[in-house]
Design brief:
The protein has a single domain, classed as Rossmann fold (3-Layer(aba) Sandwich). It contains nine helices and seven strands. Helix 9 links the parallel strand 6 and strand 7. Helix 1 packs across helix 4, helix 2 runs antiparallel to helix 3 and helix 4 packs across helix 6. The radius of gyration is 18 Å and the shape is globular. The N and C termini lie far apart (37 Å).
């Protein structure tokens, strides 16, 4: 019998709103509020990304450095991540996504959160929602053990997310033909994961993913709604 896996993207799939910028602001307010004065530089970085002078991973690292800092003690950052997770659970989780997660749990599926968001806070959100495993963008530590902006490995996005899920399967001793994967995401960048899955769901799809779903025969579910 195959092992059932239910793999969920996080931002705009499980959550109403993206979490990355919200986390940076949350961290700045709690660690060093003066860093909010650097927000105009963040806007310039976004312009650099739009002009393709920076890739997505480098943009993420630079914004993190601006608003969180070059190095933060892990215990301080853990407290910030926990408070951020509590805020997201209170205001930013789609009820229909909660219901789908619960249905997958009751069906005996192993719940996996796979997100480009930083593991340092995605893990706290995933744990609170009852996920068994979290696959996310990891950060490195410096020689003093402080958490730094540098991404450890790949940014868990697009093809890299699929690669990280496949690496996780190997790590867990789960052969691809021994698992049945359900995958949920809102964004076309997750098409590699949709194609890896046995059951692909376009959840709250953007326009490009909606077109892909129609072409590929993926089921569309819409979880946007009131709290």
């Amino acid at each position: 019998m195959k092992v059932g896996l239910a793999i969920y993207d996080m931002d705009r799939t499980v959550t109403r709103r993206p979490t990355y910028a919200a986390f940076l602001l949350h961290a700045a307010l709690r660690l060093a509020p003066w860093r909010l004065l650097l927000l105009p530089f963040s806007a310039l970085l976004s312009l650099g990304y739009a002009l393709r002078l920076l890739d997505r991973a480098r943009l993420k690292e630079l914004n993190y450095t601006l608003l969180v800092g070059r190095g933060v003690a892990p215990e301080r950052l853990a407290a910030v991540a926990e408070s951020f997770a509590r805020a997201q659970l209170a205001t930013n989780i789609l009820p229909q996504a909660r219901a789908a997660i619960e249905a997958d749990r009751k069906a005996g599926r192993r719940l996996v959160l796979a997100t480009a968001s930083y593991e340092l806070y995605a893990a706290a959100i995933g744990k609170a929602l009852g996920f068994d495993d979290v696959i996310a963008t990891r950060t490195q530590s410096d020689a003093r053990g402080r958490v730094v902006a540098r991404i450890d490995g790949a940014n868990c996005y697009g093809d890299a997310k699929r690669d990280m899920v496949e690496a996780w399967l190997a790590q867990e001793g789960l052969a691809r033909d021994a698992v049945h994967i359900r995958f949920y995401s809102d964004h076309h960048s997750d098409a590699p994961m949709h194609r890896l899955a046995d059951e692909a769901f376009a959840a709250n799809p953007n326009a490009r993913l909606a077109r892909l779903a129609a072409a590929e025969g993926w089921e569309v579910v819409r979880w946007k709604g009131r709290r």
